[in-house]
Structure formats: structure tokens, C-alpha cells
Amino acid sequence: MSLVRALVVTVVLVLAVVLQVAVFSVMSFDGVVPNLALLVVVAAALVRGPEFAAVLGFLGGLAIDLAPPADHVAGRWALALVVVGYLAGRVRHDAGTSAVAALLTVGASSFIGTSVFALSGMLLHDPAIPVAEALRVIPVAVAYDVVVTPFVLPPVMRLFRRLRPHEVAY
To answer: Cβ of 147: how many Cβ atoms within 10 Å?
Structure first.
């Protein structure tokens, strides 16, 4: 990846994390904000594939884990977004061609990512989120991510398509 492409991807990811933790925290619903970093990872997965999206998921998740006001064990969102990036990238041929398939991929990715985050908290005995609250938050998080998807996913996917390196035919 060229330096310019890496810089643009970094800016998009940092912007998503900043908007998620600073701007959208004001508009939280039941303590839940849309996971913009997850949407960027899903867009990368649908355009570039599972390997690129998993790496981007790790970086985005780590940024969320370390951004204030992080109140959980670091690494949980990194793990969740690595899994999301890989799994969403595996279905990219089906979901990259249809808006409905992309929306379903976001819904499934949001469910998986939020569930991995909640389950890792239970395994690590993280006192920040009790089990009952984690189970109540998952449907709200999925709904919020799906509602925000039409505003975030298409422009980010378009950007990632423009940044894709030219493929050489053999």
C-alpha cells in the first residue's frame, strides 16, 4: 500500500473513532452509540477482503479501546473488530453487489462484534458492563448501526474502491 493510501485510510479510521467517541456520545440511546469504526471495517471488508479488513479492524478496535472515556479492558474491541473484518470479508462477493445484502452484512457484523465484546467482558470479569445489561444493549447497538449504515457505508466503500491498487492481469 502506498503512503498516500495508508494516510487516507488512517484519516478515515481516526475520523470514525473520533466521531464515535466524541460527537455521537452526545446522541447516545440507552448508552449506545453507532459503531462507526465497525462500519468502516465492514466497508473495507466488502471492498478489499478479509485480510485488509482484519488488520484495519485491529487498528480501529485498538483506537476505540484506548480512546477516552474507555472504561473496559483494552483489547476487547480490537478482538471484536478483527473477527468482524474477517467474517465480513469472507462474504464480500455476495454483499458487495446488493444494498440489501450489505445492510444484512452490517446487521450481522454489528451483532457479532457487540456479542464478542460482551462475551470477552464476561470472560475477563470486566465489572464495567454486567451480563444483563450487555444482553439488553446488543439489539439496540445492531439497530443503531443499521440505521446509520446508509449514511456511512456507501461513501466509505466508494473511497476504498478508489484507493484499491490497480490489479495486474496475467
So the answer is: 11
